[in-house]
Every structure is written in C-alpha cells, then in structure tokens.
Amino acid sequence: MIETLVPVKLVVRVPCAIIEHQGKILAGQRSPFLSFPLKWEFPGGKQEENETDEQTLEREIMEELGVEIHIIDKLPVTIIDQGWREIILVPFVCSLKTENIVLTEHEQIIWLEPDDLQSLDWTDGDLGIIQNYYQYLAVKK
Ligand SMILES: Nc1nc2c([nH]c(=O)n2[C@H]2C[C@H](O)[C@@H](COP(=O)(O)OP(=O)(O)OP(=O)(O)O)O2)c(=O)[nH]1
C-alpha cells in the first residue's frame, strides 16, 4: 500500500488586546530582532496549553506591559496564512485595571486616537482587526 503524507499545518492562536484608555488605543512596535521586525501590533501572544483566550491575554499583557486589564468585548478573529503555519489572531477590546506600564518586549508603544491607527505600519493581519474595531465603534455609538 502506498501511503500519502499529508502535511499538517501548525495553527497558532494569538489573543491580542486593543487597549482603550482616555479615548486612545495602545499600539506596540515589535522588536527589530523578532518576526515582523518593527511592525506595529496589538500586544498579546501565543496561547499555551490549557489556557482560555482570556487567560492567555491577561498573562501576556502582564509579561509584556506589566499591567492588569479588564476584558470588555471580543472582536472577530483574523486568520493569517503564512504557508507553513496559520496564525489565528483573537482580538479583545480591553481597558487598563492598573496603569503603570513597563515595557519588556516592545521597542516602543504609542497611544493613538482610533482615527489615527492607520498611520502606523501594522502587520497585515492587524489591518483587518482595525477595520473590525471601527465597525465595533460605529455600532456602539
Ligand atoms: N501579539 C500579536 N501578535 C501578532 C499580531 N499580529 C500578528 O501578525 N502577530 C503575530 C506575530 C507573531 O508571529 C505571533 C505572536 O506571537 P508572539 O507574540 O509570541 O511573537 P514571537 O515573535 O515570539 O512569535 P514568532 O513569530 O517568532 O513565532 O502573531 C498582533 O497584533 N499582536
């Protein structure tokens, strides 16, 4: 019998946070030494085994920014197909529970009005997230 090898694509689930504070949104610039160097992203990271999306997000935000968050709403997922793996970005609208941000991974962060978000050089997947966030804001009004 001839067996056919079917390549299994790695699927990575990445909860990320659209953090709202005083009418602005936090964007983080990725390190020049990691994948997507110097691109802008919503902070977050890869889910570990047995974590819910919310647990991953709270852990990652504490690791990367040193703050606690309130999770307010979930937005639609955006899928990035990188050929060898698929990244499922799971965005959550959040607010700050504690405010003293200490950066451990990002090159820099910036707080922007929602309308100004598109001025940054985001990862491809994040452009879809921003459009979904605008729709979310429009419905909320
Ligand atoms: N946290 C976050 N990651 C994003 C966003 N957009 C996007 O494409 N990503 C990608 C970058 C990474 O490949 C992955 C998140 O994993 P990570 O935060 O642990 O970053 P990493 O550099 O260690 O990951 P890797 O690419 O080296 O595997 O998702 C986003 O808005 N936020």
UniProtKB/TrEMBL annotation:
EC id: 3.6.1.55
InterPro entries according to UniProt: MutT-like, Nudix_hydrolase, NUDIX_hydrolase-like_dom_sf, NUDIX_hydrolase_CS, NUDIX_hydrolase_dom
Claim: Hydrolase is one of the keywords in the record: yes
Single annotated GO MF: 8-oxo-7,8-dihydrodeoxyguanosine triphosphate pyrophosphatase activity
UniProt cross-references to CDD domains, sorted A to Z: NUDIX_MutT_NudA_like
Protein name as catalogued: 8-oxo-dGTP diphosphatase
Domain spans labelled Nudix hydrolase: 9-135
GO biological process, one term: DNA repair
Family: Belongs to the Nudix hydrolase family.
Catalytic activity: 8-oxo-dGTP + H2O = 8-oxo-dGMP + diphosphate + H(+); 8-oxo-GTP + H2O = 8-oxo-GMP + diphosphate + H(+)
Domain of life: Bacteria
Keyword terms: DNA damage, DNA repair, DNA replication, Hydrolase, Magnesium, Metal-binding, Mutator protein
Names of the cofactor(s): Mg(2+)
Coiled-coil residues: none
